[in-house]
């Protein structure tokens, strides 16, 4: 009597072009539908659902090709594990923003920045102010939605162009978004490429720095040729920050501490969390009345009020109720919970990207292109077009940032290129071009918030246009293209 033969494993088939195309088309259709139905609220859940449904479609195709559900689970687990550091950093950033608002750190930066406004060089000042603020808070959307709105309004009063001002606001806002360690896209770029965040930022400055300087020069030239109306009041509601907070250089101590920790290469999540705690202590010492007003529990003992205030700011963010709209919008943000939607979309994007990459779906689409991209310049050109295409067709900057890094990471290793080259070009092409697409979530937000059509402000987003061009130029010329050490190259 012979043993019955065990069931033979299912044969694994290579994915076809159709297999690879279906999930991507599904993603584009679902995200397009989300943006159409929900508008600016699409990133508050609908886009995340679209990503997860597209991941399920990809999983079904993978199962059809003979892979097991266990293999799919393992690939998803690897995707999540690749962003664990990013999760801790983003949560720490949320805590930091909350305590820095309450401590007067961000109000002080904004107040000092507003003071440099002069009608004769309004566009230049706008770019500088938005660059400083966005670098401090790490958010282009918050910068545009607060400082940017005020500056566009002032432009109308001064008789200068709101359209050019909108371009300057977006240029400055995205400079900080790309180079601040507090920016979620900066953190994500570094983590996905497998590079230290400060190494990524140093590499990023080689394109962001010249692009921003070029933008400022252009704005200075345009401003010098623009006639303005003299004697118009330029003080905005944001100038009343000193009536709510003690505006003092001492409030910048948390920023100094973060700078020192960053310079000493303390791990980013630890450095940011320590700076958040310093912000809480600064709030207790310099802004006790702000903490008491924020907690609003008169019967609670003062020491407990201070502890609860810092705890609340770290967990749920700071809420300002001054009654001054611009100030309340600027400062009512932060907290770890403010990062949950971002983490949700990141988890969806990396899961989709991981499934598409791990089981050969992306390779089926990309390999024919890579075969033609035999030089570093052509490789960079492929990444730039991929990221911009995803911004156009998928309509979301996270997808345009995540997928190119996932797709081309192995190729960079094979060619002996350091990962910071990839994180830089992906950010240059994926992050900063998102507000240039009207139906992209970023483009829709900028146009609606500033009251200026995307097509009108697009030519004046000098930084956003110059960044991918500079990155592409570096790839073609080989300038600042870092190579892997020979030993590490041999390992890969």
TrEMBL record:
Annotated GO MF terms: antiporter activity
GO cellular component: plasma membrane
Domain Na+/H+ antiporter NhaC-like C-terminal, first and last residues per copy: 174-479
Cell membrane is among the record's keywords: yes
Topological relation to the membrane, as annotated: Multi-pass membrane protein
Family that this chain belongs to: Belongs to the NhaC Na(+)/H(+) (TC 2.A.35) antiporter family.
Protein name: Na+/H+ antiporter NhaC
Species, as recorded: Leptolyngbya iicbica LK
Upper taxonomic lineage: Bacteria, Bacillati, Cyanobacteriota, Cyanophyceae, Leptolyngbyales
Gene giving rise to this polypeptide: nhaC
């Amino acid at each position: 009597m012979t043993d019955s033969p065990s069931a033979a494993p299912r044969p694994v088939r290579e994915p076809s072009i159709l297999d690879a195309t279906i999930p991507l088309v599904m993603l584009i259709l679902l995200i397009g539908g989300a943006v159409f139905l929900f508008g600016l609220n699409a990133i508050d859940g609908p886009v995340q659902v679209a990503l997860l449904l597209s991941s399920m479609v990809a999983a079904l195709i993978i199962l059809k090709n003979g892979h097991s559900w266990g293999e799919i689970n393992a690939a998803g687990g690897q995707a999540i594990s690749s962003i664990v550091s990013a999760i801790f950093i983003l949560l720490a950033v949320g805590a930091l923003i909350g305590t820095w608002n309450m401590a007067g750190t961000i109000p002080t930066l904004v107040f000092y920045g507003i003071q440099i406004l002069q009608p004769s060089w309004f566009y230049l000042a706008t770019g500088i102010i938005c660059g400083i603020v966005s670098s401090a808070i790490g958010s282009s959307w918050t910068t545009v939605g607060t400082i940017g709105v005020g500056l566009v309004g002032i432009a109308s009063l001064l008789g200068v162009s709101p359209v050019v001002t909108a371009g300057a606001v977006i240029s400055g806002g995205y400079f900080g978004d790309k180079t601040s360690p507090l920016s979620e896209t900066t953190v994500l770029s570094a983590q996905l490429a497998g590079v230290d965040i400060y190494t990524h930022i140093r590499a990023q400055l080689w394109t962001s720095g010249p692009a921003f300087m070029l933008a400022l020069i252009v704005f200075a030239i345009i401003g010098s040729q623009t006639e303005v109306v003299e004697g118009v009041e330029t003080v905005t509601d944001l100038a009343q920050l000193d009536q709510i907070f003690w505006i003092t250089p001492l409030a910048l101590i948390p920023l100094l501490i973060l700078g020192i920790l960053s310079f000493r290469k303390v791990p980013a999540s630890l450095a940011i969390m320590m700076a958040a705690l310093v912000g809480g202590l600064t709030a207790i010492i310099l802004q006790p009345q702000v903490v008491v007003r924020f907690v609003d529990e008169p019967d609670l003992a003062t020491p407990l009020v201070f502890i609860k205030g810092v705890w609340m700011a770290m967990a749920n963010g700071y809420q300002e109720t001054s009654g001054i709209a611009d100030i309340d919008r600027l400062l009512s943000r932060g907290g770890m919970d403010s990062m949950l939607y971002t983490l949700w979309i990141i988890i969806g994007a990396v899961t989709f990207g991981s499934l598409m990459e791990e089981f050969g779906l992306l390779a089926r689409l990309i390999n024919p292109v890579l075969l033609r991209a035999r030089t570093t310049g052509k490789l960079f050109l492929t990444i730039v077009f991929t990221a911009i295409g995803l911004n156009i067709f998928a309509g979301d900057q996270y997808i345009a940032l995540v997928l190119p890094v996932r797709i081309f990471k192995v190729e960079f290793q094979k060619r002996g290129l350091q990962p910071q080259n990839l994180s830089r070009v992906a950010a240059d092409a994926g992050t900063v071009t998102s507000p240039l697409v009207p139906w992209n979530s970023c483009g829709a937000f900028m146009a609606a918030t500033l009251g200026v059509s995307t097509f009108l402000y697009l030519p004046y987003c000098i930084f956003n246009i110059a960044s991918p061009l500079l990155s592409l130029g570096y790839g073609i010329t080989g300038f600042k293209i870092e190579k892997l050490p020979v030993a590490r190259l041999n390992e890969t």
